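Hey, I was hoping to borrow your eyes for a little while. A protein chain has come my way and I'm curious about its shape. Take your time with it, there's no hurry, and the full record follows here:
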Amino acid sequence: MLPLANSPPEHWLAGLRANPPSGELGPLQLAWLGDAVWELHQRLRHCRQPARSQDLHRQVVGLVKAAAQAEALRQLDGLLSGPEQDLVRRGRNRAGRGPRSGDAAAYGLATGFEALLGWLFLHDPCRLVELLDHLKENNP
């Protein structure tokens, strides 16, 4: 049964346990997974708003584009551990140029952010929840 709209929302990751794949994933695979984690997080944050689906879609697209993800990573500055910073760096360095019309620096930061989210989703869901909650509290 779905929770009622007025009931306190549980974090969608609450019951998730670490479930790393048998082989090590590279930064781009982690970024691909992290992109899906971030989009689902944003969709769940917005799905309770009374609006048309195309309006909700536009809001979420604005939050999942590279510039917004780069800003989210900046908001985590000072909170990331050394290994987390290293993972972001590895993702950023593997990003490539990105779309022609986009900012290459923002694209690299966004890829690093996504790689971090993908890794945390698989290896440390509790830490992922902590960082997502920090972003939500600082950017409601």
About this structure: The radius of gyration is 15 Å. The CA atoms of residues 4 and 48 lie 10 Å apart. Confidence is low (pLDDT under 50) at residues 1-9. The helical segments are 27-46, 53-64, 66-75, 82-93, 104-123, 125-138.
